[in-house]
Amino acid sequence: MAQNAADLLKAQNVGVEIIVGEDMADAADLAGKAARGDTDVLAIAGGDGTIRLAVEASIGSGKPLAVIPAGSGNDFARNLHIPLETADAVQVILDGHRRPVDLGRVSFPDGRTALFGTVAATGFDAAVTARAIDMRWPRGQARYTIAALFELIALRSRHYQVRVDDETAEADLIFAAIGNTTSYGGGMKITPKASVSDGQLDVTLAKNPPRFARPTLARVFPKVFTGTHIDHPLVQTMRGAEVELYCDPPALVSVDGDLVGELPAVFEAVPHAIEVFTPPTPS
Hints:
eleven-stranded antiparallel β-sheet, Rossmann fold, ATP-dependent diacylglycerol kinase activity, 283 residues, two-stranded parallel sheet, alpha+beta, globular, Tumour Suppressor Smad4, transferase
């Protein structure tokens, strides 16, 4: 994928250097050094997790990013309308249109932080991510769907305390998702009204139904692919620049498909954090 993109760029007289690390940590280190060197653009061939690591490494460099989608979900690219085909994604770079894009940041009590471009997931969502990471088959969106179905079998809720700016909520929840983009997991529209340019994070809270109503979840779950799940009485949505979550027992936290810690945590929007090559926004 990276070599194909590089060949297409070179054919248009664009100078390219391919960086491949021995592992993800080494690749992130090399990306950070490239972003702070003479490179004009940092192009990332990979999925949401790879993009996140490159952003972490290069943030503050002022260098624009280009995305060559090559992951299982590609939700960051989807939300920016970047084509999934390599040749079309390269053409976006050649066209030269760039736009500022928001990020999210999660901070933990021990001082650790992590940036994210798509969605931060907690509870059931993060458990699905953990299961999907361990699955070798199938690839793409189907992997998250199957992982979710397995997690539904052993469903558990946690007691959450939620603060979104000055608004608070408290309930037994199955999950709380914090979205910078509309989707994760290859098009699951968990926060369907989120925007990467509004300086806000969208929050979706899924309440725990009575035990006799558990089959309701199986009927609501497919609606996440269209975003209509937020109309269900068991779902609450909120929006703000800062989100604080506590829960008992503690829940895992994943961002852009990577497990990064557990609650409690604070999530905040980082407006116009990076510039990304994208197709022009339709008028």
